[in-house]
């Protein structure tokens, strides 16, 4: 059970409803957006930032999805895991890598760049600031733009996990 009620499309201001459904009245929108719609002045900005990280970043989509899955696992966010496991497969993340993150298994499945990104994600999530050693290692693989996008992605999806877990958003259909 959610801690707050999700808004129906009819309860939302037109601008918010159109953004959530893409202007298609037959769509009900994702549950996260239906919950976020309570903050009508913020939901549009939240969605724009999330969309920019998902569709306009230079950071490789496979790396991004590994990061988001790791955050979902670290934060025990079932909704975030569910949505991004689908997306990870769509962008070509192997089943073995998805399982390794889900089960918290050894990192032999991952290359050096992926291991560096996962370590950075873990340190930023747990400590806010990554160690100089981990940052330097990661800097060998990513441009400045990609480092900034990665750090924004980690912060954004930690916020998403916190939002989901504290409002009790459930997976669609459950």
Tags for this entry?
globular, 174 residues
Provide a short characterization of the protein structure.
By secondary structure, the chain is mainly α. The protein has nine helices and no strands.
Structural summary, described in words:
The chain is mostly helical and 174 residues long. The chain contains nine helices and no strands. It has helices at 14-21, 31-36, 40-55, 61-75, 78-90, 95-103, 112-127, 132-139, 144-167. Helix 4 (61-75) crosses helix 7 (112-127) and helix 7 (112-127) packs antiparallel against helix 8 (132-139). The longest helix has 24 residues, at 144-167. The protein is globular. The termini are close together.
SS-derived structural category: mainly alpha
Low-confidence stretches: none
Globally, the shape reads globular
Give the helix proportion (percent range). 55-70%
Alpha-carbon distance between the two ends: 10 Å
Q: What is the count of DSSP helices, taking H or I runs of 4+ residues? A: 9
Order of helices and strands: HHHHHHHHH
Strand content: under 5%
Total beta strand runs: 0
Largest sheet: none
Average of the residue pLDDT scores: 93
Kindly report the oligomeric state of this protein: single chain
> What is the radius of gyration computed over CA atoms, rounded to a whole number of angstroms?
17 Å
């Amino acid at each position: 059970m959610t801690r707050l009620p999700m808004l129906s499309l009819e309860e939302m201001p037109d601008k918010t409803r159109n953004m959530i459904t893409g202007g298609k009245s037959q769509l009900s929108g994702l549950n996260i957006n239906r919950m976020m719609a309570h903050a009508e002045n913020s939901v549009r900005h939240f969605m724009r930032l999330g969309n920019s990280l998902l569709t306009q970043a230079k950071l490789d989509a496979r790396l991004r999805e590994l990061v988001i899955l790791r955050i979902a696992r670290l934060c025990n966010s079932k909704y975030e895991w569910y949505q991004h496991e689908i997306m990870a497969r769509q962008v070509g993340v192997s089943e073995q890598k998805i399982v390794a993150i889900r089960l918290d298994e050894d990192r032999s499945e991952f290359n050096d760049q992926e291991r560096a990104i996962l370590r950075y994600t873990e340190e930023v999530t747990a400590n806010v600031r990554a160690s100089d050693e981990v940052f330097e290692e990661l800097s060998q693989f990513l441009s400045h733009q990609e480092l900034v996008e990665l750090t924004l992605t980690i912060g954004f999806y930690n916020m998403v996990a916190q939002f989901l877990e504290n409002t009790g958003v459930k997976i669609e259909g459950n």
